[in-house]
Amino acid sequence: MKFEAPAHWTTDFLHHGIFDDLNALFNLTQFSNWPTLDWLNSLAINITNRNNQQISFVANDDVDWQHGYYEEIIFDKGEIPTRLENWHDLFGAFIWLLFPKTKALLNQLHIEQINKHGKTERSKKRNAITLLDECGVLVVCDQAQADLLKNHLWLEGFFNQREQWHSTIYPFMFGHANYEMATRPYLGLTGKALYITVEHQLMPKCLKDRYAWLDSYLENLIENEDILCDNSSLFPLPLLGVPNWYEQNKEKAFYENTDYFRPKRRKLK
Length: 269
Description:
Blueprint: H1 20-26, H2 37-42, E1 56-59, H3 70-77, E2 79-82, H4 87-98, H5 100-117, H6 124-135, E3 136-141, H7 143-150, H8 154-159, E4 170-173, H9 176-182, E5 190-197, H10 207-225, E6 235-238
Parallel strand pairs: 1-2, 3-5
Antiparallel strand pairs: 3-4, 5-6
Helix pairs in contact: 3-5, 4-5, 4-9, 5-6, 5-10
C-alpha cells in the first residue's frame, strides 16, 4: 500500500494509544496549527551535539546546503534541517527532545562512518543506525519476554501477557518514521525492536524521568557495547500488537492474523 500522512495539521490520530506518551509530554492537543520552530527551539535550549554545538531546528529552506550533507550540518553547526508543516520532521524533532544524548551519539556515529566510507557507500553500521533512527522501538523487559517476541510468539508475548505491558514491560517509540505512519495506522505497520533487558524496578515512575533514564542507558549501550555494528540487534515488531497502542488488539482474534503477525521463519539446514 502507498502510505500518505494527513495533508494538514490534525490531532485526530491522538486517540491511538501509540501517541499517549508524546501527547502527555508535549500536550499536542493544545495546538490548532503546526507547532512552530520557535516553540521547538524553546524546548531545545539545553541540548548540544557531540561537537559542543547548540542544537536548533532550522527551516529546511534556510539551511546552507553548500556546507555539507544533512548529518554534517547537524554535527558542524548544530542545525537540524526541518521541513515546515511536515509530519516526518516534526516527529523527528520530538525524538531529539526526548533522546538528546542518544540522538547526538547517532549523529556522531554517522559522521564517523561518512569519514570512513564516504557519503555514497553505506556500511552495515550506518544502515543499523538509520534503521534504529527511523523505525526503532525500545522495549524494556526481562529476557524471557524478549525471547517470546524475538521468536515471533506474538500471542504469548502480547495477548497472554497483556496486563504486564506498561507495568513490567515498557515500550518506547524511538523511530520518528513509525510515528508518522501511525498517524494513519494500517495492518502491516512494523517497527524494529531493540530489547533492553533490565529489571523493571529500575524504571522511574515519572514519565519524563523514564525517558531521561532510558536516553542515558541507551547512549551507554550503543557507545560501549557496539550493538549497532549491524542489524542483528534489531527485531521486527508489529506495532499495532502492543497492548494499549491500538484499540482493536483487545481481542485474541486480532493476533491470529498471520499475514501481520507472522511466524518466525525456520532456518534451512
